[in-house]
Amino acid sequence: MPAKKPRSLFRLTATITRAQFVGISICVFALLLAAWWIATANEWVRPLFLPSPPKVLARLGELAASGQLWQDASISIWRITVGFLISTAFALPIGVLIGCYKSWEAIVEPVVDFIRYMPVVAFVPLTILWTGTGDTQKYLIIWIGTFFQQVLLIMDNVKGVPWDFINLGRTLQMPERRILSRIVVPSAMPGIWDSLRISLGWAWTWLVVAELVAATSGMGYRITTAQRFFQTDLIIGYILLLGCFGLATDQAMKALGRRMFRYMAGR
């Protein structure tokens, strides 16, 4: 019998193991790091514009040893946590409500659609005027940048619940609040969790924007300070660190979602 051809990992509907997934991801990051290292080692780019990986790592090591890095990171992580939780606490019930009731959708969705197209950056001067430059302003920017998107994503997740599920609840003569709490929300929760995971990435972006413009602490503030003194190694180091934090939170939510929604493992 002729030997079977190995299946391509890039074939439509092809599946890969967890180990293959991790291996491919690590290889991609290794290639990007190698390209960066080669470009700086051969001086294809001036160090002022792109310092080498060892120089960036050395600067991060200095900041970690002095405690500055941990202080900046802890402040930014606290702000992102509080701001994102506030946004989610508002968006979750509103998204479920307008996803279930057309009348509420008519009241809320046009306003949400209208505001979500306004650039968040344009609100930064207003939020400074309203709340000053403290943490409240950071929470408000994160809320503006994520709340309206979350509402629409959660609405779509709720609308994806099959009508048969809802009709079953009515057949069992369940009151509407129990249909919402026992059927609609649990059925939509896997999709809602993915939507929250995606919107968390936006929250990181808007936090850094707020810290870049109006802050006296945090990672975004440190990047702005470094820019004044042409400390490119610090800027790139903090940008990479922000990427690591974002990737870590994303993968943590992914792993937690797999544990909470085991029945969706085949997706």
UniProtKB/TrEMBL annotation:
Transmembrane segments: 21-39, 77-102, 114-133, 139-158, 202-223, 235-253
Domain ABC transmembrane type-1: 73-253
Pfam families: BPD_transp_1
Matches recorded under InterPro entries: MetI-like, MetI-like_sf
Keyword Transmembrane: yes
Membrane-topology annotation of the record: Multi-pass membrane protein
UniProt keyword annotations, A-Z: Cell membrane, Membrane, Transmembrane, Transmembrane helix, Transport
Coiled coil: none
Subcellular location(s) of the protein: Cell membrane
Annotated signal peptide: none
Family label: Belongs to the binding-protein-dependent transport system permease family.
This protein's name: ABC transporter permease
